[in-house]
Design a protein that fits this description.
Oligomer: single chain
Radius of gyration: 23 Å
Strand content: 5-15%
Structural class: alpha/beta
Distance between the termini: 52 Å
Helix content: 40-55%
CATH architecture of the largest domain: 3-Layer(aba) Sandwich
Number of domains: 2
Bound molecules: uridine-5'-diphosphate-glucuronic acid
Largest sheet: 8 strands, mixed
Length: 429
């Protein structure tokens, strides 16, 4: 099939590439001319495992191309995906201006029947607005259908999630686009559920908020574990073996972050308020998340007392493993809180240092994770990169003034660390 994807962020670029990989012809559109030039010359603007090879392969096969012209994308495709940002506004609601602008641009460009698919995460009722907008601005009066098709990919595992989705949600207003949408997803061999548009839009916000709730739940349990002497990992393992609960997203941490959960949670709370159905449970999820970070910082100040004049080594800046994304990163938040307390920082991340430099100033960026501890008073683990498990603990112990580690991701074994002579403080253990 012939597809165009408007917006080449994480979602747009990975979606377009994976559709090309299964045999569709895909044009990725972005209004950022420099980004388009970079993509056309074989560059990739983000770090995402497996993506670069797939982009190269599909460009070479003639199934994937890039343009800055929406009109060109629309003209040459049967299905048009909207995958532009939906950033948060001051009050937590969603800024839909990019979606509205793209809807107008599509309206101006269509001359024959098209399926317009919204992939961006949007508040319930947005599809109706998109349909209204296209109808209003479409001079050719061509027919079209609007579909909601939310994306569930995780950064760092985006290719894997897209190629083998748990499910595909297709929200429609009529049956007309169902056949094409189903055929388009057929190669992915995933269960497809067809709903009305509003339900599809809600599935996305409800799913992300539920996952955030799951993390806040285990983080709240981690506080009780610390107060009672239990071990949160064992509690999570025991809970997770119940198939109704499941073990995933029960890893206690210094809190969730990233460009999705915090934003989607605020948006869902706002939508519920606007609909006159305040969602107090989700407000508590946010509060627990903030508290979890505050508890972690307190753990550090309780141990080191005055941070002014102390140097702390921080392992991890990305909001989670396998990504260079630092948007709403708990690790960056932590660094800034430690700086506020007067600490000097030496930091390292396997992929995110370049992006971190724009937001985290006055720190020493260290290229080698094993050199971070040099001249430090303590080490902090802030992101769950698997390579941190291979840290040279012996070298770090000797480099530190005292062997103190605060592990915000529970990467190491408590008994093992204590045996090696560390003062080791983690989450909920
Ligand atoms: C999330 C969802 O998992 C995706 O399904 C969704 O498509 C995406 O948002 C989106 O809306 O676009 P993502 O933000 O990439 O994906 O990252 P996650 O893997 O969900 O992690 C989010 C945060 O939760 C990270 O800070 C992570 O470290 C934290 N986390 C996750 C925990 O603290 N504990 C866990 O057990 C799991």
């Amino acid at each position: 099939m012939k597809l165009s994807i408007i917006g080449t962020g994480y979602v747009g670029l990975v979606t377009g590439t994976c559709f090309a990989e299964v045999g569709h012809h895909v044009i990725c559109v972005d209004n950022d001319v420099n980004k388009v030039k970079l993509l056309q010359s074989g560059g990739i603007p983000i770090y995402e495992p497996g993506l670069e090879e797939l982009v190269k392969k599909n460009v070479a096969a003639g199934r994937l191309s890039f343009t800055a012209s929406i009109a060109e994308g629309v003209e040459q495709s049967d299905v048009i995906f909207i995958a532009v940002p939906t950033p948060p506004q001051e009050d937590g609601s969603v800024d839909l201006s990019f979606i509205e602008k793209v809807a107008r641009d599509i309206a101006a460009a269509i001359t024959s029947y098209k399926i317009v698919v919204d992939k961006s995460t949007v508040p319930v009722n947005t599809g109706e607005k998109v349909a209204e907008t296209i109808k209003r601005y479409c001079k050719s009066k061509a027919e079209f259908d609007v579909v909601s098709n939310p994306e569930f990919l995780r950064e760092g595992f985006a290719v894997e999630d897209l190629m083998s989705p748990d499910r595909v949600v297709i929200g429609v207003r009529s049956q007309r686009p169902v056949k094409a949408m189903t055929e388009m997803y057929e190669p992915f061999k995933a269960p497809i559920i067809v709903t009305d548009i509003n339900s599809a839009e809600l599935i996305k916000h409800a799913a992300n908020s539920f996952l955030a709730l799951k993390i806040s739940y285990i983080n709240a349990v981690s506080a009780i574990c610390e107060a009672s002497g239990a071990n949160v990992q064992e509690v999570a393992n025991g809970m997770g073996m119940d198939a109704r609960i499941g073990r995933r997203f029960l890893d206690a941490s210094l809190g969730f972050g990233g460009s999705c959960f915090p934003k989607d949670l605020s948006a869902f709370i706002k939508i519920a308020d606007q609909l006159g159905q305040p969602f107090h449970l989700l407000k508590e999820v946010q509060r627990i998340n903030e508290n979890q970070m505050a508890r972690f910082v307190k753990k550090i100040t309780d141990t080191l007392w005055v941070l002014k004049g102390k140097t702390i080594g921080v392992l991890g800046l990305a909001f989670k493993q396998n990504t260079d994304d630092v948007r709403m990163s708990p690790a960056i938040d932590l660094c800034q809180r430690l700086q506020k307390e007067g600490a000097t920082l030496r930091v390292h991340d396997p992929k995110a240092m370049e992006k971190a430099k724009a937001v985290l100033k006055n720190v020493t960026y260290v290229a080698d994770m094993n050199a971070v501890a040099e001249g430090c008073d303590a080490l902090v683990v802030a992101t769950e990169w698997p390579e941190f498990k291979k840290l040279d603990l012996n070298r770090a112990r000797k480099a530190l003034s005292h062997p103190i580690m605060f592990d915000g991701r529970n990467l190491f074994d408590v008994a093992e660390m204590e045996k090696l002579g560390w003062i080791y403080k983690s989450i909920g253990r």
